[in-house]
Amino acid sequence: MRVHLCAVGRLRAGPERDLIDDYVTRFDRTGRALSLGPFTEHEVEDKRGLGMSAEAELLARAVPTGALIVTLDERGTLVSSPEFAEMLARWRDGGRQDVAFVIGGADGIDPGLRARADASISFGKMVWPHMLVRVMLCEQLYRAASILAGLPYHRA
What we know:
Layout: E1 2-8, H1 15-31, E2 39-44, H2 52-62, E3 68-78, H3 81-93, E4 98-103, H4 111-116, E5 119-122, H5 130-149
Parallel strand pairs: 1-2, 1-4, 3-4, 3-5
Helix pairs in contact: 1-5, 3-5
């Protein structure tokens, strides 16, 4: 199952980019044997500053046709790392070819796009900067692959 990150904003060189690259490399390496991956980033930018609805349109175009859409949103469901791993395995085993994780911009995700999502997950009740959410997602993808592979990375 191919994994896509569809996010508003361009992530430049820096600590977040370094962390994402590290976790994605680990995920792709571990996930390959599990039929998870490859991981692809799709960055969109509303250069005209038209707001959430314009961002939603760009994000919707970035999502591959037929992909399961998962929004990362503070209103989403709180899941543990093992539950997240189970979700990925269930989608993969159910025949899904693509899953797209959607991260909005500073104002969040347009309600219309949120309504189209197949699932919505939250990394807690706190609001996180959208660039850090990317890092957290990539780490959780690697952790999920490690859990499914029976590797010792996850020790809970």
